[in-house]
Design goal:
mainly alpha, disordered C terminus
Length: 269
């Protein structure tokens, strides 16, 4: 167990439930039981479920394992199929959209990019994530930092378009973004530490305060983006390695473990 806010049984039930929900939705999609106008949001929900499964598995301590690559691959495929027609982009009026994501969508994409890098998924799957942000004309320096770590020859085509005074994204991720530009690794590590301690857990984050919910929606408050930055930059994380939001085992990789047969195996995952 890595997460102390909930029990082992809680997270096992969480993963079990999300797998069942997605299996049911896959079946309904295959049998044309979902209305056409609901297919995109349903697939987007399923992509979120896979992300939450990944987080809950890490909380359980069974991450990384051999099934993780399948989880993230399915999530990326669903994300690709649901991030269409300006889904998740800031809508001004009529057919006018900004080349920016709403905060919840931004965080989902950032988590997928971070996990994709940390787990060293195949280039083909990583490229799908890049294609999503490219076709949405999203230019974000934190995204690009992770992308270039995987694809060094990547050329950022456009500059960012955030409102520097009011953007929640810039305010929340300011220290982490500064760390990626810092040449002094000690200073960069200090910025990551400050980000984890002062900025990461905030009221705009997905599933904020979910550990206090009566519903089974909490999967862990892991900052996969902080881990990605530390690993890419080769930073010394000793000053924040035990921070409750820092998924240190994804930076200091443990050997892959085989998933035990049982409650997950019965679901065919």
């Amino acid at each position: 167990m890595r997460d102390k806010l909930k029990s082992k049984e809680y997270f096992e039930d969480f993963v079990d439930e999300r797998y069942k929900l997605n299996k049911n939705l896959y079946d309904r999609l295959d049998n044309n039981q979902i209305k056409i106008d609901r297919i995109v949001p349903v697939k987007n929900l399923m992509a979120s479920h896979y992300l939450h499964i990944l987080s809950a598995k890490y909380s359980l301590g069974i991450f990384p394992n051999e099934e993780i690559s399948l989880d993230i691959s399915k999530g990326i495929k669903l994300l690709n199929e649901s991030m269409i027609n300006n889904q998740g982009k800031v809508h001004l009026k009529d057919n006018i959209y900004l080349n920016q994501y709403y905060v919840p969508t931004y965080q989902i994409i950032l988590n997928y990019f971070s996990l994709a890098y940390l787990l060293e998924i195949p280039d083909s799957d990583f490229q799908i994530l890049v294609n999503i942000t490219d076709r949405d004309n999203i230019s974000d320096n934190l995204y690009e930092f992770i992308i270039k770590a995987r694809f060094p020859n990547r050329v950022q085509k456009r500059s960012e378009e955030y409102d520097t005074e009011h953007s929640v994204i810039l305010k929340v991720y300011n220290r982490l973004r500064k760390a990626t530009k810092e040449k002094d690794k000690v200073a960069a590590a200090r910025l990551v530490k400050q980000f984890l301690e002062k900025d990461y857990y905030h009221k705009h984050m997905n599933l904020y305060n979910s550990h206090n919910s009566k519903a089974n929606i909490y999967c862990g408050y892991w900052s996969f983006e902080a881990a990605a930055v530390v690993k890419i930059m080769g930073l010394d994380d000793s000053s924040f390695i035990d921070n409750q939001y820092y998924p240190k085992d994804l930076v200091h990789q443990l050997p892959l473990t085989k998933e035990k047969k049982g409650w997950l195996g019965k679901l065919g995952f």
